[in-house]
UniProtKB/TrEMBL annotation:
Annotated SUPFAM superfamilies: Metallo-dependent hydrolases
Protein residues bound to a divalent metal cation 2: 149, 172
GO MF term list: DNA nuclease activity; hydrolase activity, acting on ester bonds; metal ion binding
Keywords of the record: Hydrolase, Metal-binding
PROSITE patterns: TATD_2 (PS01090), TATD_3 (PS01091)
Pfam families given in the database record: TatD_DNase
Keyword Metal-binding: yes
UniProt cross-references to NCBIfam families, sorted A to Z: YchF/TatD family DNA exonuclease
CDD domains in the record: TatD_DNAse
InterPro entries cross-referenced by the UniProt entry: DNase_TatD-rel_CS (IPR018228), Metal_Hydrolase (IPR032466), TatD-like (IPR001130), TatD/YcfH-like (IPR015991)
Protein's name according to its UniProt entry: Hydrolase TatD
């Protein structure tokens, strides 16, 4: 069993175009596995391609991120062009998911923070919700868990998720409160904790981490973003998930190895790896 699993990472993004193999190999050398999460068709395919190069320790999740539903979002760390605005191709992603290395559908969900200018906000929300439900249907058909993105939309997200009691998954980069987390747990979901937990001002997240059951927590980097202390300000790496686990151990006043073991066990169970 690996020491740690980075349950949400993007080392297949443009930010790693020159050294992705070294980055992944370095993580594996430190006994850290990684789930490569796609955000649109290009990065989903790339994640699968890279995961298939490894016998063990590297896996893929495929989906369209909600900000890519409409043409406006640009991130030089992610892709080399401005998003065209993508409609979810159910059969395309179903075919891509035939790879044994695809262990989840995601990241998909709702994002009310990045609502593009020039679009009706209500329409954007409706479009995101429709696409999220399409991802859920695919996950259920394929019996795969989901990596769920949510930003400033937890209530609406919950109202959708409760329609699908058989869905398994993780609320990636969780930033809600304890009460909301407990609602997700009742649906059978996990929460993903990123390097934000190492930030001094992340008081609400600290309270969540100290309060909720450890067995419902997964650790993740979301690299190249959200780099934890003491590397904040630099490009994040999958191996930095160790700093996330160590901070959780500190907050819970627990042994680090116990946190690493519990979060790894949960990730392996959820993603069947």
């Amino acid at each position: 069993m690996p020491s740690l699993i980075d349950s949400h990472s993007h080392p297949h993004f443009q930010a790693f175009k020159d050294d992705w193999r070294e980055v992944i190999d370095s993580a594996l050398a430190k006994d850290t596995w990684a789930l490569l999460v796609g955000t649109q068709q290009e990065t989903s395919k790339r994640g699968v391609e890279i995961a298939e190069m490894y016998d063990e320790g590297v896996y893929a999740s495929i989906a369209i991120h909600p900000v890519h539903r409409h043409p406006s979002h640009y991130d030089e760390n992610e892709i080399s062009f401005q998003t065209r605005g993508e409609v979810f191709g159910y059969e395309t992603y179903k075919k891509l998911a035939q790879s044994k290395k695809v262990v989840a559908i995601g990241e998909s969900g709702l994002d009310y923070f990045h609502v593009p200018e020039g679009f009706d906000q209500n329409q954007v929300k409706q479009d995101q919700a429709k696409m999220f439900r399409e991802h859920i249907e695919l996950a259920l058909e394929l019996n795969l868990p989901m990596s769920i993105h949510c930003r400033e939309a937890y209530d609406d997200l919950y109202n959708i998720l409760k329609d699908y009691p058989k869905l398994r998954g993780v609320a990636h980069c969780y930033l809600g409160d304890v009460k909301q987390a407990e609602k997700f747990f009742k649906l059978g979901l996990y929460i993903g904790v990123t390097g934000i937990v190492t930030f001094k001002n992340a008081k609400q997240l600290h309270e969540v981490v100290k309060t909720v059951p450890l067995e419902r927590i997964l650790v993740e980097t979301d690299c190249p973003y959200l780099t934890p202390e003491p590397h904040r300000g630099k490009r994040n790496l999958p191996e930095y998930v160790e700093f996330v686990a160590r901070r959780i151990a500190d907050l819970r006043k627990m042994d680090y190895n116990a946190v690493a073991e519990a979060t790894t066990k949960s990730a392996r169970s959820l993603f069947n790896i």
